[in-house]
């Protein structure tokens, strides 16, 4: 058939919309989404004919089916809930820290209607958004003052711009980190207007190296936690205590970009990361850390330390640029509140609960999932030991003992993994030795049925498809 003839067989938008399968959407779906989908499919078909890729008469039924699946796709939210079955607790691609129930409820309470975001109820006049969390942060960390910005990268930027613009900042050569591909100490330093002054070597930086680096241009000494890598072998690192003493002697502020924001002792659980209160006790001047790493709260960057320095940062124009929203403050206040009682923090903050779960506890939950999958999921399931990770650029060398459920249902693991992640609530699983694994550490109790149902549906539909 000629192209012109083929084109004339394509349905018009109005014709397509008369089909019951598309028409039915109008009750539940914005009209625009349906007409856009119809138009898109017709345009694609037209393009295929014009390119000479489609030689036969277009099959209307197939076109309608394409339109229907496109409408379904467009109806879905882009940012949706997902099930993390990878065992990586702070999974950066899956939103890092899960918030506690109390934090989520506080976000709803303070965001649905008006709030006291910048209102001082005692005075009946303008207040400051910084005040909501400052008391709690100082109480829990032992700092004199604190403020919150959008993330740790923003905190670093604000801190350096305020204290060191046009001057030099000493950093060890072993600590010029890159986190997540876009946060790089030398780049953020340049952006802030401060000049990076490298001291020491990649594997060894001693206090004398810092001492030698100090000159009349020095505005600060910055220590950066090597969050996502470790230097091993013949190494020497200068402690915070030594740096704090040197800073005091020379009248130069010592800043510590810590990243992880640990507030609870995880050593008994095999995770040895520096903690915020412990680091502040060494006498450093300002600490910077993330809200959504080991702290287990919302994305945020927290600056805590000397009041005169924090006050200066609050007044810097960048503070307005990097300020956080009320939802962040609501979640952060509730997260910090939990730390007033450490045991409450451990059980209520999901990141801590996941990291401190005992092997026995995990094994029992894995057995529960395996039983569900065998009886209702239509597959065979085996409980197997696995190694889990903290993730989020923390404790890079630590592998936690965990448990997973490995399944077999006659579907190739790559295909199964893809089908699981293309569901309305995507389930992100791992393939280990040719089997799909659901790692129990990062799976919530209310997600066990979700996984079982997904496996059951996929197994049935693929078996059904093969029979046809
Ligand atoms: C994670 C991390 C950052 C970046 O923090 P974000 O909250 O992701 O912006 C900066 N510095 C260190 C040392 C980190 O570990």
UniProtKB/TrEMBL annotation:
One of its GO terms (biological process) is conversion of seryl-tRNAsec to selenocys-tRNAsec. Keywords: Cytoplasm, Protein biosynthesis, Pyridoxal phosphate, Selenium, Transferase. Residues 7-46 form the L-seryl-tRNA selenium transferase N-terminal domain. GO terms for cellular component: cytoplasm. It is found in: Cytoplasm. It catalyses: L-seryl-tRNA(Sec) + selenophosphate + H(+) = L-selenocysteinyl-tRNA(Sec) + phosphate. It holds the Pfam family SelA. The keyword Protein biosynthesis applies. Pathway: Aminoacyl-tRNA biosynthesis; selenocysteinyl-tRNA(Sec) biosynthesis; selenocysteinyl-tRNA(Sec) from L-seryl-tRNA(Sec) (bacterial route): step 1/1. InterPro entries: PyrdxlP-dep_Trfase (IPR015424), PyrdxlP-dep_Trfase_major (IPR015421), SelA-like (IPR018319), SelA_trans (IPR004534), SelA_trans_N_dom (IPR025862). Converts seryl-tRNA(Sec) to selenocysteinyl-tRNA(Sec) required for selenoprotein biosynthesis. Belongs to the SelA family. This is L-seryl-tRNA(Sec) selenium transferase. It comes from Zhenpiania hominis.
């Amino acid at each position: 058939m000629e192209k012109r003839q083929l084109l004339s067989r394509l349905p018009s938008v109005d014709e397509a919309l008369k089909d019951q399968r598309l028409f039915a959407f109008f009750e539940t779906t914005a009209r625009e989404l349906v007409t856009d989908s119809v138009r898109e499919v017709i345009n694609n078909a037209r393009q295929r004919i014009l390119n000479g890729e489609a030689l036969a008469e277009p099959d209307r039924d197939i076109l309608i089916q394409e339109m229907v699946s496109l409408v379904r796709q467009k109806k879905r939210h882009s940012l949706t809930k997902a099930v993390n079955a990878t065992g990586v607790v702070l999974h950066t691609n899956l939103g890092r820290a899960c918030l506690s129930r109390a934090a989520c409820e506080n976000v709803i309470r303070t965001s649905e209607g008006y709030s006291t975001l910048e209102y001082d109820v005692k005075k009946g006049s303008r207040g400051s958004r910084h005040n909501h969390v400052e008391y709690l942060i100082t109480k829990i960390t032992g700092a004199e003052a604190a403020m919150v910005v959008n993330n740790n990268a923003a905190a670093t930027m604000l801190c350096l711009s305020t204290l060191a613009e046009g001057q030099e900042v000493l950093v060890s050569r072993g600590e010029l980190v890159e986190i997540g591909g876009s946060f790089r100490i030398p780049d953020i330093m340049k952006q802030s207007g401060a000049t990076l002054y490298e001291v020491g070597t990649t594997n060894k930086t001693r206090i004398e190296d810092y001492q030698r680096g100090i000159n009349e241009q020095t505005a600060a000494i910055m220590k950066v936690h090597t969050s996502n890598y470790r230097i091993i072998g013949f190494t020497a690192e200068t402690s915070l205590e030594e740096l704090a003493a040197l800073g005091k002697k020379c009248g130069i502020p010592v800043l510590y970009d810590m990243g992880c924001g640990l507030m609870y002792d995880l050593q008994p659980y095999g995770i040895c990361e520096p903690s915020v209160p412990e680091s502040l006790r060494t006498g450093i001047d300002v600490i910077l850390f993330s809200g959504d790493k080991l702290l287990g709260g919302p994305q945020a960057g927290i600056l805590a330390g000397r009041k005169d320095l924090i006050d200066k940062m609050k007044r810097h124009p960048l503070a307005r640029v990097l300020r956080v929203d009320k939802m962040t403050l609501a979640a952060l206040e509730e997260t910090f509140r939990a730390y007033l009682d450490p045991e409450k923090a451990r059980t209520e903050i999901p990141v801590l609960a996941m990291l401190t779960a005992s092997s026995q506890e995990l094994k029992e939950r894995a057995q529960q999932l395996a039983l569900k999958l065998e009886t209702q999921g239509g597959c065979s399931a085996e409980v197997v030991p696995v190694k889990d990770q903290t993730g989020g650029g923390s404790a890079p060398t630590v592998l936690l003992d965990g448990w997973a459920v490995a399944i077999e249902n006659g579907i190739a693991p790559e295909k199964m993994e893809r089908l699981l992640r293309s569901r309305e609530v995507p389930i992100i699983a791992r393939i280990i030795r040719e089997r799909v694994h659901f790692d129990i550490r990062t799976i919530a109790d209310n997600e066990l049925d979700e996984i079982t149902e997904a496996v059951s549906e996929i197994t049935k539909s693929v078996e059904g498809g093969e029979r046809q």
